[in-house]
Amino acid sequence: MNPARFLPIVILLSTLISNAQERNLKNIKKLTFGGDNAEAYFSPNGQMLTLQVTNPEIGTQCDQIYSLNLSQPITDSKALKLISTGKGRTTCSYFMPDGKHIIYASTHHKNEACPAPPKPKDGKYLWAIYPEFDIFMADLNAKIIKQLTDSPGYDAEAVVSPDGKKIAFTSVRSGDLEIYTMNIDGSNVKQITSGLGYDGGCFFSHDSKKLVFRSSRPKTEAEIKEYKELLAENLVAPTSMEIYTCNVDGTDLKQITNLGKANWAPFFHSSDKKIIFSSNHHATRGYDFQLYMINTDGTGLKQITYESEFNAFPMFSPDGKKLVFSSNRQQSKPRETNVFIADWVEIDENEYAKTNNLKKHITYLASDELKGRLTGSKGEELAANYIVSELKKLKLKPFNGKFLHPFTYSIRLNPHDTISQGKLNKGTNVIAYLDNGAKKTIVIGAHYDHLGLNEHHHSTKMNSEGEIHNGADDNASGVAGVLELARMYSQNKSKENVNFVFALFSGEEDGLIGSKELAKTIKELYPNTIAMINMDMIGRLDDKKSLIISGVGTSPKFSDIIEKNKPAGFSVTQEMSGIGPSDHASFYLKDIPVLFFFTGTHSDYHKPSDDEDKINYYGVENVVNYVFRSINAIADLDKVEFTKTKITSDKKVPKYKVTLGIMPDYTDHGDGLHVDGVTENRPAHTAGILQGDIITKIGDCVIKEVYSYMDCLSKLNSGDEKEVIIVRNEKEMKVMVKF
C-alpha cells in the first residue's frame, strides 16, 4: 500500500443485516407466527414436524410439544396441534420410526406446574437442567403410551436413530451430564461419553453409526469449579461449547470445532460428511447466532445464514432436500422466535475460498527468496513468473494477447529532490482474462510489488536499507485473494454474466504506476467495464474483525451490497471516496466504480517484520468470500452507475508541520484516535505511546477521530512540547511529547 495516497473518509455503519445472501437456502417459508418456537424436527416421511412452543396467545404459557402437518396450508398458529399433556414443562421431541408416535422429555409427572426458568448469575446466561425431566413416548393425540426413563435427575434430549433401533439421550445419572443410548423400547441403557462437562444435544448420522453432539468440557481449575457448582444447582452455562462426534458405542471421539464461544445444535448433512450447527464464535459483541457448516474432519467452515441475530436448531429432511430451523427474522414482536423451512441448495465447492491455497501463495510471495519483490528487481520477476504459472494452471487467457505487460517510469530516490528527472525503472503487470461471452467486464486487482531491501526508501523502519521487506500483508495477501478468486470463477460450474480481468500490478509502492498503465486503456479494450475491485492488505484482520471498504460511494448500489453480504461478526467501515491509498484510485479517475477491501494498518506496516507467520488466514478466507459474494451481486445489477465522490466529504484536511510518528486507525470509533502502530525513534515512541493506545487529547485540543487529530497537529510547531492524554487498558494516562 502506498501511504502517500492515504486520505480516507470513513462512515461507520451499524445497521442490522437484512436480506443477506443465503445461497444454500431458497424459498424460505415461515411456519409459525408468534411466541417462542424451536427444536422443530421432521417425521420419518418428511411430512410432519414436532416442535417446542411457548405462546401465551394460543394458551401455552410454558414449553409444550406441538405437531405441524406440512402437507396442509399453514396460515397461522392454529395449524399447530398440541401433542404433549399441556402440563409441566417439556423439551426435545422426536418422531419414533413409525411416524405415529413421539418421544419427549417432560416434568408433568412430578409437578403439573411450570418450573421457573433460571435467572442469570453474575451476568451469565444459564440453562436449567430440571431434575424432574424424564422421557416419555406418546401418540399424536397427546396420549402417554410409555415412560422410558425413571432415574433420579435429568433425563432429556432424546433422539431416535434412522434405522429405528436406538434412542440416544442426555442424563445426569452418573453425576455428570453424559450421553447414553438405549434400545427403542427403553432397555439396555449404555453410557457413551465420560468426559467432564455437559455432553448433549446429540443426533445420529444417517447411517446410524455415529453421534454428533455439543460439549462444554471445562479445562482450567476455575472452569471446572464453576461447572460443578452450577451443576449442583441443576444449571449449566452454555457459553463455551464445541462440536464433537463419536461412534454410537463411544469410540473414536473427535472434537470437530475449535472456534470458541457457543457452538451447538449440530446435525449431520445427508452425506454424513458435513455437520450444520449454530454458533456465535464470530460475534464481537452482543447476541448473534448464525448457522454454519463444517466438514467432519474440521475443515471447510462455511457460513449458511446471514439474516437476523438468532438462527439455530437446523435439521435436514430425511431426503436432504429441505432444511428446517428456528430464527428471530421477520419478527412481529421483540423476543419472538419462529420456525422456518427452506429448500436446501448445494453450493459448488469451487465457489468457496480455500485456506491452503491462500497460504501457499502468501508463503511463496513473502519468502526471503523473492527479497521483497521490489519493482524492477529479480524478486519481482520471480513473483511475476509464479503468478503467470498459477493463472495458466487455471487455463485463463492472456490479457490482450500476453500475460506480462512491462512499463517504464522514473523514480526519485531522494524525496527532497524536486529538480532531477529521477532514475529510470522498469516494472511488469501480470494480467489474465476470463471470457464468459458477456457484455460487461469487472477488473479484480491487487499489487504484487513491495519494498525489496528498502532501495526506494519507503520503509517505516529507520536505517533498514539492506533488510528484506517481505510484505506478507502488503500485499502478498491481496495477490493471494486475486489468484483464489480467479480459481473460484474459472473452475466453478456457473457462467457469470460478466467477463473478468485479473490484474496483478507492480509499481504500486512507487505511486500506483502499474495500475495507471492498465487504467489508461481498459475502456478502449472493454468499454463496458462496470467495476474495479481492489484488495490491498487483507491479511491482518484484528480481534474486532474490523474491515474498511473504500469506494462505496462510487456507485449507488454499492453500500447496500456491502451491507447485505457482510460476514457475521465483522465490523465494516464504509468509506465513500473513490480516491485512496491504492490501485483502485487509478480506475476511479477513469470514471469506473471501485471497491477497495483493506483490514487496516499495523505496527509491521512497511517494515521487515511484515511476515507470513502473522497472517490471519481466517480473516483472508472470509474477506475473499465476502468479495466473491459482493462481485456476484454487482454482476447481477442491470446497470452499475458511476458516481463521483468528494475526496474529503466536506471536511477540509488541515496542513501540519509536525508529526507524532504513529499509524492511526482510520475507523471512527468515537472515543478518540486508536493507534494502530508506532514508528521507532519518533515523538510517540520516545514518549512511550504504544500500539493499541487511544489518544484523546493533545494539550487543550480534544481528539475524537482522525480529522480532529489532524486538526490538533496543524496547530503545533516543531519544538512544541505538549501533554498528551491516552487511554490504555481502559485507564487514562498522561505523557509529555516533544514534537
UniProtKB/TrEMBL annotation:
Q: What is the lineage of its organism?
A: Bacteria, Pseudomonadati, Bacteroidota, Flavobacteriia, Flavobacteriales
Domain of life according to the entry = Bacteria
**Species of provenance:** Flavobacterium hankyongi
Q: Where is the EF-hand domain?
A: 493-528
Q: Which Pfam families match?
A: PD40, PDZ_2, Peptidase_M28
Which PROSITE patterns does this UniProt record tie to the protein? EF_HAND_2
Family note: Belongs to the TolB family.
Q: What is this protein called?
A: EF-hand domain-containing protein
